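We emphasize that the prediction below concerns an isolated chain of 19 residues; any contacts that depend on oligomerization or on bound cofactors are therefore not represented. The input was used exactly as deposited, without trimming of termini.
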Amino acid sequence: MVALLASNAVLSATRKSPL
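Result of the prediction step, given as a token string:
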């Protein structure tokens, strides 16, 4: 699903960021 992909991408980016 596109929603899942988008959520996964956001989570990955947020997790990689120190914030």
